[in-house]
Amino acid sequence: MEAAQKAFFDTYTDFQCFMIAQVNKGDFNGVGATHYNIVEYLYRNGPNTGKDLARKFHISAPAISRHVKFLLEKKLLAQKQTAEDRRAFLLEVTEKGKQLVNGSETQRHSVTTRISRQLPKKELEQFTRMLQKVVDILKQEGEN
Amino acid sequence: MEAAQKAFFDTYTDFQCFMIAQVNKGDFNGVGATHYNIVEYLYRNGPNTGKDLARKFHISAPAISRHVKFLLEKKLLAQKQTAEDRRAFLLEVTEKGKQLVNGSETQRHSVTTRISRQLPKKELEQFTRMLQKVVDILKQEGEN
DNA sequence: TGTGAATAGTTAACAAAGTTAATTAATTTT
DNA sequence: AAAATTAATTAACTTTGTTAACTATTCACA
């Protein structure tokens, strides 16, 4: 492996280790990371069915089903049967759910805030641009 | 939230979504992602103790203990008690373990290769430097 | 030098969150 | 109308993390 690529690989590995460790720690009074992500997604993208969520988050229907059940019990989501297909339910975020999203200091918030504080603004902007480029590359191939 | 920080937050969120979806898919004939990461880490960085691994991967000692037990059974690692401290064991990668690492195209490999190919070398180096800085920031606070 | 505190690792019991297989009810296809 | 497909659920299981309690060893120091 070429030197620049090796250096990148090592750093990326380090970063990934951190992220993995980090990502599974989002827990707001018993609302886990995936729970939260579902609520946030529905908040930002409007009502969707369970099937949609499974596709979006790349997890199985039963996994979504359990998450949704939990979120309904917590009154963070509400569901209503669709008229066109009575098997399907549109899930939408309740007021309480919206408050959760608005009030939550996620790890993502805390991490990005920490980084924003410690990098000079110019560098932060540059890093953001480059990270965006990387995300674009990753998405490109994700489409296949 | 300030504009530069908001832009960073959004991009980071995007990136994190991608990572979460990808990260847990590494499984080579029953050797899970964390198993593999441990073997690779020891291969690239030389023998380390369980304690070191727990620190490196940000997971608890018992979790490491179980992973190591599995990897010893699979003969991917070998251990030897250290002379200086008879509580501690140095873990090192066996030939079989090295073969696993050399023969595996991990997610991380494929991702970093894709990025390396599509970014001009100079940009890749720059991105690596900045990502390293970010990792350092994250590590700093991890120490508290 | 002996003792109490700290440390490396393990075991046990548990929790969270994913999986597949099977079931139900509704819809679509033939 | 019957057969196949689909959205959602339930049940049983797996993986992989956690904390608490334990053993064996080492360290600090009165």
UniProtKB/TrEMBL annotation, chains A, B:
<dbReference type="InterPro" id="IPR036388">
    <property type="entry name" value="WH-like_DNA-bd_sf"/>
</dbReference>
<dbReference type="InterPro" id="IPR036390">
    <property type="entry name" value="WH_DNA-bd_sf"/>
</dbReference>
<dbReference type="Pfam" id="PF12802">
    <property type="entry name" value="MarR_2"/>
</dbReference>
<keyword id="KW-0805">Transcription regulation</keyword>
<feature type="domain" description="HTH marR-type">
    <location>
        <begin position="1"/>
        <end position="136"/>
    </location>
</feature>
<protein>
    <submittedName>
        <fullName>MarR family transcriptional regulator</fullName>
    </submittedName>
</protein>
<keyword id="KW-0238">DNA-binding</keyword>
<dbReference type="InterPro" id="IPR000835">
    <property type="entry name" value="HTH_MarR-typ"/>
</dbReference>
<keyword id="KW-0804">Transcription</keyword>
